[in-house]
Amino acid sequence: MLKNTLSNLGYLAAMLGLGFAIYYFALNPNSPLKNPQSNLDAFSTQAFFDAKLPNENGVSQDLSQYKGKIIVLNFWATWCPPCREEMPELSELHTEYNNKNVVVLGVAIDELALVKEFTQESPVSYPLFSAENEGMELASNLGNDKGVLPYTVIINTQGNVVNSYFGRINKTLISEALLPLLAH
Question: Which structural domain range is residue 146 located in?
Fold first, then answer.
């Protein structure tokens, strides 16, 4: 009886381990297999830095003003629950790292009126821009080949994409990615 129970527990533990491994390496959107950092060199930031987008108040902004900074660039939409969930942590991150040459930017794949309405209800500490369809093209140029939101990239001071994340991110994940960039 005890031997049978231990055997069943062993099988259960093996199945749970296998399930976790499958999730982490195959199903998790930020898994190492789905997001190989070695391909990041192929993504061009030129279109991003050449873009002029309206901020939440409708004032057109040159994104080239952020050259030379470490950029945490988050593509989002007002209708996207995971996007909205990660925004408070991105606000904290922006406030915490703003004096370290790091800026968080949000590019909404949304109409300007919806972005303005959103910021009135849920203010954030970092700059937001409205890009509608152009935003998905910018995201695609920066590695979003799946067309999903949220999508986040980290751009170093030289203007190169050094990390990218499909799906919801958190402050801890981004803070860890920023550490090596801040050490230089």
Answer: 36-182
